[in-house]
Amino acid sequence: MKSLKKQRRIQIIAVAVVALTLSTALIGYAMKDGINLFRSPTQVVEEPPRKGEVFRIGGLVLEGSLTRGEGTSVTFSVTDTNAIVPVSYTGVLPDLFGENQGMVGTGTLQDGVFVASEILAKHDESYMPKEVVDALKEQGVFQESSE
Question: pTM for the full model?
């Protein structure tokens, strides 16, 4: 009788380990598409993302680059003062979106153009996304506001 109980315990533990491993793998696979890494324009130019990878890019909208197409199509360039990445977006832009303003976009890189699925802009006159501030500080060009 003792050997049957011991054998049953080993079987239960083995099934539990297999179930835990399988559930961890499934959770990891499900989260793969939900994680969007932030990249500055310099990082995108130096190390282009793999094809089809969804990521976030942020920086300043380059002055003079904002072009409105037919309907809701918009093209512009985003920069961190070191590199420039062209951006294409179809949709309604946020009200506070403009040239020389901070922005963060989510999308993919296709043939050297960042095709955005979502564009976020600053909240008010002094706000800039944390990732953009960090990227500009890294480049040595960020200046604190006097407020």
Answer: 0.66
